[in-house]
């Protein structure tokens, strides 16, 4: 089946209407290695007037972004949408590589919601097909592809969690297996003919791996092609992604032009730095805050970020106006305790995902812990001790407070383990019987009965 035939065969989810190719006047396109040729200042006159509402929409689009390319084309699209009343199609694709979404994912989800709130059509694309390939973006090794079973299990939770940010009633949910499966071998070969190996090797991660002698599998070249083809199938006007996705997003522009469509604009958002203050937020680096985490844990993690990192979190995660954030930052610079700002941020984020009451409770729990108090709601369990008593390392591991006995020893060395409020320094400590409140770090507690 050819690529156009595959598009004719692909169906909308839950319906029977086939895709039909729409032919647009094709604007100039950029390759994934090129930069936008225009800015708003030197743009050619728009076909439709740039009104105050268009300027407001542009300001909303630009808040917190890394790049908007090409800006002048996006202004023209906004002006056309304003004049005709036809919403623009705004796409975000996420591969379900893990079962949970963290706050780093919500940076682009928040931007998607902002564009949704000003009237544009949001498409939340779940990359169930592309997950089977594995995204090579930013990798210095081949990313292991997921199994279909892993993808299905992870995808089941993605939209439910994304709906905590997006308006479900105004969101179009799609899976790229709808059109990618329909391509077949013939269609895949025809799609691959639309781009050259030389241009593909301009991509930084491929370039670096090639010159370092690190292997690059042929299937990895298919990933940006398939992500770009998503834009063709969905006829998107704007695609969002993190800064590490720029090559893939520009591939969408290239392929849309190849198929006679109006090229999408692209918008990249900064990558949210994780709790370690160094690496991007990632589950694999254990520096993340999951949006489905318990309110108290979420609040405590937000309070642990540095004062400097806090302002980046405000810009990328908060729904406050930029003027409000600037005023709050100025107040802190003038002597106000930055902790007040961090509390406000923590409560806003917790309230968004768990409600205002949970945010208030989380604050009280945090205050109680900071004063050395024990939270009201902590796990309770009973452990059986051998005749010589239960070693502290085994106790911490069995109570679920550490992943391993070696981690328990490391936490003891750092003074991070307390029993009934007293710091434990003896790695050979054994407990025979009794009930104890055991604490690891600032946020992990358990009430343990040793019998």
Automatic annotation (TrEMBL):
The name of this protein is Tyrosine--tRNA ligase
> Which stretch carries the motif 'HIGH' region?
96-105
The terms under GO molecular function for this entry are: ATP binding; RNA binding; tyrosine-tRNA ligase activity
Can you state the subunit structure given in the record? Homodimer.
HAMAP family per record: Tyr_tRNA_synth_type2
| GO terms of biological process kind | tyrosyl-tRNA aminoacylation
Its function, per the record, reads:
Catalyzes the attachment of tyrosine to tRNA(Tyr) in a two-step reaction: tyrosine is first activated by ATP to form Tyr-AMP and then transferred to the acceptor end of tRNA(Tyr).
Q: What are the binding positions for ATP in this chain?
A: 283
Biological source species: Aquabacterium commune
Q: In which family does this protein belong, per the annotation? A: Belongs to the class-I aminoacyl-tRNA synthetase family. TyrS type 2 subfamily.
Cite the RNA-binding S4 domain residue spans from the record: 390-451
Indicate which residues form the motif 'KMSKS' region: 280-284
Keywords (alphabetical) are: Aminoacyl-tRNA synthetase, ATP-binding, Cytoplasm, Ligase, Nucleotide-binding, Protein biosynthesis, RNA-binding
Which reaction is this enzyme known to catalyze? tRNA(Tyr) + L-tyrosine + ATP = L-tyrosyl-tRNA(Tyr) + AMP + diphosphate + H(+)
Q: Where in the cell?
A: Cytoplasm
Write down the EC number. Answer: 6.1.1.1
Predominant place of localization = cytoplasm
């Amino acid at each position: 089946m050819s690529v156009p035939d595959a598009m004719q065969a692909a169906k909308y989810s839950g319906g029977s209407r086939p895709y039909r190719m729409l032919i647009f006047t094709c604007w100039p396109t950029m390759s994934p290695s090129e930069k936008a040729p225009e800015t708003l200042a030197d743009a050619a006159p728009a076909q439709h007037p740039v009104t105050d509402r268009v300027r407001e929409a542009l300001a909303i689009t630009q808040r917190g972004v890394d790049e908007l390319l090409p800006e002048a084309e996006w202004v023209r699209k906004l002006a056309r949408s304003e004049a005709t009343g036809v919403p623009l199609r705004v796409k975000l694709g996420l591969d379900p590589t893990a079962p949970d979404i963290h706050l780093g994912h919500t940076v682009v989800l928040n931007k998607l919601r902002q564009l949704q709130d000003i009237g544009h059509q949001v498409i939340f694309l779940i990359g169930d097909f592309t997950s089977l390939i594995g995204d090579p973006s930013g990798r210095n090794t081949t990313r292991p592809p997921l199994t279909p079973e892993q993808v299905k299990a992870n995808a089941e939770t993605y939209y439910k969690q994304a709906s905590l940010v997006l308006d479900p009633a105004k969101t179009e949910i799609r899976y790229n297996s709808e059109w990618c499966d329909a391509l077949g071998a013939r269609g895949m070969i025809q799609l691959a003919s639309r781009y050259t190996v030389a241009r593909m090797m301009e991509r930084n991660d491929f370039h670096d791996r090639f010159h370092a002698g690190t292997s690059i599998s042929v299937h990895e070249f298919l990933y940006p092609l398939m992500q770009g083809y998503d834009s063709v199938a969905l006829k998107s006007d704007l695609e969002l992604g993190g800064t590490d996705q720029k090559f893939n997003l520009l591939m969408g522009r290239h392929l849309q032009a190849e198929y006679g469509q109006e090229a999408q604009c692209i918008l990249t958002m900064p990558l949210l730095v994780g709790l370690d203050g160094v690496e991007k937020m990632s589950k694999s680096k254990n520096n993340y805050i999951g949006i489905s985490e318990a309110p108290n844990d979420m609040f405590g993690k937000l309070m642990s970020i540095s004062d400097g990192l806090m302002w980046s979190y405000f810009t990328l995660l908060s729904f406050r106006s930029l003027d409000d954030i600037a005023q709050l930052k100025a107040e802190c610079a003038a002597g106000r305790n930055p902790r007040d700002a961090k509390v406000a941020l923590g409560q806003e984020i917790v309230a968004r995902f768990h409600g205002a009451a949970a945010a208030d409770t989380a604050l009280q729990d945090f205050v109680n812990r900071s004063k050395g108090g024990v939270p009201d709601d902590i796990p309770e369990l009973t452990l059986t001790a051998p005749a010589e008593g239960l070693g502290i390392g085994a106790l911490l591991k069995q109570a679920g407070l550490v992943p391993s006995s070696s981690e328990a020893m490391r936490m003891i060395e750092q003074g991070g383990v307390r029993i009934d409020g007293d710091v434990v320094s003896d790695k050979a400590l054994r407990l025979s019987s009794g009930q104890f409140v055991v604490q690891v770090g600032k946020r992990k507690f358990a009430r343990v009965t040793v019998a």
